[in-house]
Design a protein that fits this description.
alpha+beta, seven-stranded mixed beta barrel, 3 helices, disordered N terminus
Length: 244
């Protein structure tokens, strides 16, 4: 998961909480806005691309069809399986009266019922195989990279990249001596480069372990971007409000 990387560049005040000033001290905290998550999608099965349903820059929803593979064989298999289900069901119904009149044995009836159940199982398998010919979006996000075109072959290699721009994330690195001062739920204010408007973010994760090599610990900041006012890749500055 990508995060908004925030590097601590200056000295912290003794409490570890920055008082918000009327202007930003550009030498204290700097950051880079990045997506909160990204996925590189590959097809569950290999095959030839029939259609890629999205372009770079498109917004996608969870469950939206992104890729369709050629499925002529799987469609034929499903139709065959469904025909066998219908035939087995008709056979059971035709012989129901004969069974009630004891004109067929329990064993014969059981064979027909089993044949019907097996036909249903095969139909279910055929439906799954057909569904595997489509790839659905697992997240809501934006398409940032498309690597396949209709007619090309796909396998486990990624064919599409999607990122989440709402929310954005930040990873803030603090000195070890501030451990315990920086807490989950604390609010920060983020200022995109060149802007005087601040956006509220919240620390959602504080690492429970201090990294001995760097004598520091990390935190994750969440920043809402519902109206898409902020763009990933933009440099920014961050300060802590004096009051939470």
């Amino acid at each position: 998961m990508l995060r908004l990387k925030v590097l601590l560049l200056g000295l912290f005040i003794s409490t570890g909480i920055f008082a918000e000033a009327s202007h930003l001290d550009q030498g204290q905290l700097s950051c880079l806005l990045e997506p909160s998550s990204q996925v590189q999608l590959s097809s569950e099965v290999s095959g030839v691309v029939q259609k890629v349903h999205v372009q770079r820059g498109d917004l996608v929803e969870v469950g939206e069809v992104l890729l369709s593979l050629n499925a002529s064989v799987e469609t034929a298999m499903l139709n065959t399986a469904l025909s066998k289900v219908e035939f087995a069901l008709r056979k059971v119904r035709r012989n129901a009266k004969l069974y009630r009149k004891k004109l067929i044995s329990e064993h014969e009836r059981d064979e027909m019922l089993t044949e019907h159940r097996l036909a249903n199982f095969l139909a279910t398998e055929a439906k799954v195989r057909l569904q595997q010919r489509q790839t659905l979006s697992p997240i809501k996000g934006v398409v940032v990279e498309r690597l396949k075109q209709p007619g090309e072959f796909v396998d486990e290699t990624p064919f599409l990249k999607i990122v989440t721009l709402d929310p954005l994330h930040a990873e803030v690195v603090f000195r070890a001596d501030l451990y315990g001062e920086i807490k989950k739920g604390m609010l920060v204010k983020i200022y995109p480069e060149g802007s005087t408007q601040g956006y509220i973010g919240e620390i959602i994760i504080v690492d429970p372990i201090i990294d001995a090599a760097s004598n520091s610990f990390g935190t994750t900041v969440l920043l809402s971007n519902m109206r898409a006012k902020l763009s990933a890749g933009v440099r920014c500055n961050i300060v802590f409000p004096a009051k939470q």
